[in-house]
Fold this sequence. Notes:
Number of helices of chain B: 16
Distance between the termini of chain C: 47 Å
Structural class of chain B: mainly alpha
Radius of gyration of chain C: 24 Å
Radius of gyration of chain B: 24 Å
CATH architecture of chain C: Orthogonal Bundle
CATH superfamily of the largest domain in chain B: MetI-like
Order of helices and strands of chain B: HHHHHHHHHHHHHHHH
Number of helices of chain C: 13
Strand content of chain C: under 5%
Helix content of chain C: 55-70%
Largest sheet of chain B: none
Strand content of chain B: under 5%
CATH topology of the largest domain in chain B: MetI-like fold
CATH topology of chain C: MetI-like fold
CATH class of chain C: Mainly Alpha
Number of strands of chain B: 0
CATH architecture of the largest domain in chain B: Orthogonal Bundle
Number of strands of chain C: 2
CATH class of the largest domain in chain B: Mainly Alpha
Strand order of the largest sheet of chain C: 1-2
Number of domains of chain B: 2
Oligomer: heterotrimer
Helix content of chain B: over 70%
Largest interface: B-C, 99 and 104 residues
Amino acid sequence: MSAAIDIRHLTKRFGALTVLDDISLQIEDGEFVVFLGPSGCGKSTLLRMIAGLEGVDEGEIALGDRRIDPLPPGERGVAMVFQSYALYPHMTVRQNMAFGLENVRTPKDEIERRTDAAAKILEIDHLLDRKPQMLSGGQRQRVAIGRAIVKEPKAFLFDEPLSNLDAALRGRTRLELAQLHQRLGATMIFVTHDQVEAMTLADRIVVMHDRRIEQIGTPMEVYQRPATKFVAGFVGSPAMSMLPVSGVTQGPSGARVTVDGVGDIDTAVPLPPGFAAKGASIGIRAEDTTPSDTGLPLTVDVIERLGDRTLLHGHLPDGSELVAQDTGRSTVTAGDTVRVAVDPHAVHLFDADGRAHHATGAD
Amino acid sequence: MSATTPIQHGHSRTLFWIAVAVSVLMFAPMAWVLVLSFTDNEALSRGTEAAFTGPYTLKNYTDIAGNSGVFRWFVNSLIVGAGQTAGVLVLSSLAGYAFGRLEWPGRKVIFVIVLFGLAVPEQAVIIPRHQIFSTLDLHNTYIGLMLPGMSLPFGVFLMTQFFRAIPPEIDEAALLDNATRWRIFWKVLLPLTLPAQATLGIFTFLFAWNDYWWPLISATDKDMYTLTIGIASSQVNFAQTEGLGFLAAQAVFAALPVLIVYIIFQKHVVTAVSGGAVK
Amino acid sequence: MAAPHRQSRLSNALFAAPYLVVFIALLVVPLIWGIYLSLQKADLFGLYGFTGWTNYARVLNDALFWQSVRNTLLFVVVTVPILVGIGLFLGLALNARTGGAAFMRGVYFSSTVLSVTIVTLIWRFVFIPGDGLLSLAFQAMGWQPIGFLSTEGWSLFSVGVATVWWCIGLPMILILAALQQIPGDLYEAAALDNASRWRTFTRVTLPQIRGTLILVATIQIVMQFQLFGQAQLMTNGGPNGTSRPMVLYIYRAAFENWDVGQGAAASELLFLIILVAAMGQYWVTSRGPRT
């Protein structure tokens, strides 16, 4: 049975406040999709609407060939892992996992079979008779996942499940989740504000901002061909530098962009017909810059050494800020002015509405 | 405390030892009654100095065993205390769930009205209550003795606080686990309120055991007296009583159950009285 | 649309219904009916019609009522500050994580769990002339014995002593709970600021527990206005009504003289006085300068 999720024209309001505005999205059977966005963008609300924990004001949600938005949460065939895990504190691990199955009168031996199997996969079989307060954060996390697995749902919903773990454990669990997805092949939706989690886990990322979907795409698409200025600025670390554009003309290989007080930057971005320079900007990632004898004059304010490379945080003559990259052995010191060359194929051009234009062939 | 922790958060040894000295005033009256209860009645009738000299005896206590009244009152108090406690626990848990966890029209207004009930003194309702119970022929019955205590809002207030403190994700997880509303209440949330149930239960039992005014006017039949009222009736003719030693033994006998409950469950009792107020 | 499981539904109120039925039948209805009764000519056997303010007029013209009001006010004005003061002292003295402090807390709270019957019995064993503990002590010291329970002035005093002994646990526990909520780093900051012990007390401790002190005082005012069992059992209001509190006056009227209307009227007056006193106390204390 297919476990594709089809979300059509979904709108959600809390009183007069609209938190999701006409959202449409198709998720394929077996796909791992990550909802990524800053806090307050509506990503958790969207997940909770799929789970049935929030009502739907307009639009519909289908799972497989069945419309699920009128159904109560328990009958939708989805399982959810909460940020706080929400384990039942008074029940043992085994009882936590069995509770949902008992509610639908699953036969005892079947419950036992599934619980044992899930416990084995997650390596928590030695913890089955403990209560949650005797478990570490990571163990609780596994129990929460186990509780979802035993229900054999069509879709798994994860609401920022890694945010309560320490950094090392988070990295490991991320990997294990990816393995789990390969093993189960189930549809999974994962909500996070952490772009590293999104990049490493997702088949496709849904970037959300201010009640809407900004972009849907593979991690590489989102990173290299961000659809909007917001996506470009939100994904990637350090954030993409944005320079204000005062004029655009046709250059030798694409648009030639004028930045006041800095000069012209030649790009490989084809000049879009009718592109207006007013309000436009050009985006440059640190990794697409190199120190050279010509290029933009960057006065360095702060040096950030990352070992394998060095980030130069500085400003251009017009005052706009730029982050450039140098090798790990950089000798630049704060206060220096260096020249920085920009890869014309890797820059991004944004019009006044924030829509992005990229060089052809960049992937 | 080691010498390396110089700050004792305002605590003073001097104050502590003053409090220890003053506690003699707490102990002395209790000790006095305890000694009287073991002193020979005959000797006491000639003067209570006998408490310091003896002879000492257990006769006052064996006399209680022979006194059917005191035992009957003791059993009455147990029945009323247990019944009232069970009633308060059931009503408060259900209402606490409704007020602390569910949405329904009028919930906020009604909760405020119930809280106002905390401020109504017993004397403002006891006369009409007495009349209602007369009309319903409920005086001198166990139900009649238990019911008024079940109307007190304290338990509802306490349980509402506890239900509110349970994270909402727990209900949501149970919803996704296909649990019905009743099953969520019974299997998931109620077990989490067990500490509160214990606190409220002990507190209610002590309250019922010690209640004075209502049983005084409702239980007029000597066989329906609670121990509290029974002891009061014994001390009315204090001067020409059966004997000070016997009276003292009755006081000890009546105090023992509550003191034992208190000593065992001290922590719960203290939580009950301080829990709701300080938050 | 709200989430289905959080939707407001009338059926959810069913969980509250059993309690609300008891609450309405035994608290709301009696409260309202009490007001109605106070305007009726009524006795044990029934109502004899609306009499307007007659019952109130009879109560207000009764010298015994005014005597009981004076007794009650005196009692409240003396016992409440003593209870709050001793409660504060015990809170400060016993706020330590030692076994000794825990034991002393247990001792000071133990009397609170006793019934009024036992408390009064214990204190009568102390106060009775000739045989009482105090009487023996006075004899040993060669002092003139005092009839604590039967002498004007001393009788209300004796009731007050028994009351403070009985009630001290609650103020102590509430104040202790408030003291334990004060963050320890406040004291560490005060120590680093070279604050003396007294200044730490007045500038850190007191402002932090101010709310609880007000609450404790309010609770005690409401409770002590309802003085009943101690007075009834120890002195029965005597001698000459000098230790008779308002509740005992109400009890006499309604359940001994069976003048239900007059008892109800006196009840409403007491309720009114308690409300005014509690609100007045709250108003005065919560207006003070915030330090």
